[in-house]
Design brief:
- This protein is an alpha+beta fold and about 90 residues long.
- It has a single domain, classed as Beta-grasp domain (Ubiquitin-like (UB roll), Roll).
- About 10% of the residues lie in helices and about 20% in strands.
- The chain has one helix and five strands, in the order αβββββ.
- The chain has a three-stranded antiparallel β-sheet, with no helix packed on it. A two-stranded antiparallel sheet has the order 1-2.
- Strand 1 and strand 2 form a beta hairpin.
- The longest helix has 11 residues.
- The two termini are about 15 Å apart.
- Pfam families: Urm1.
- Pathway: tRNA modification; 5-methoxycarbonylmethyl-2-thiouridine-tRNA biosynthesis.
- This is Ubiquitin-related modifier 1.
- GO terms for molecular function: sulfur carrier activity.
Length: about 90
C-alpha cells in the first residue's frame, strides 16, 4: 500500500479494453480516459495538465516512456502501460 493505487480505489492492476475511435489511441488520450473512468479520488495527484505529475514513472512494455515518444506513443493491442509513483511520505 501507499502507491498510486490509492487513487484508484486500492486496485493495483487494471486490464482495460479501450473503446473504438477513428484515430489510434495514444498515451495522451489514454490519460484522459483513465482520469474519466478509473481515477476515484484526487486526480491532481496523478494528472498535471495533459500528462502525469512529476514523480510518476511511466513504463510502456517495460521501457521508459521517454524512449517510446511519451504522450504521442500510439498504443498497440496488448501493450502494457505501468504507472509507478516514486514519491512517498516522510
Amino acid at each position: 500500500r501507499g502507491g498510486a493505487e490509492l487513487l484508484f480505489d486500492d486496485v493495483k492492476k487494471h486490464q482495460v479494453t479501450l473503446p473504438c475511435q477513428p484515430e489510434p489511441w495514444d498515451i495522451r488520450n489514454l490519460l484522459k480516459w483513465i482520469k474519466q473512468n478509473l481515477l476515484k479520488e484526487r486526480p491532481e495527484l496523478f494528472i498535471q495538465g495533459d500528462t502525469v505529475r512529476p514523480g510518476i514513472l511511466v513504463l510502456i512494455n517495460d521501457a521508459d516512456w521517454e524512449l517510446m515518444g511519451e504522450l504521442d506513443y500510439k498504443l498497440q493491442d496488448q501493450d502494457s502501460v505501468v504507472f509507478i509513483s516514486t514519491l512517498h511520505g516522510g
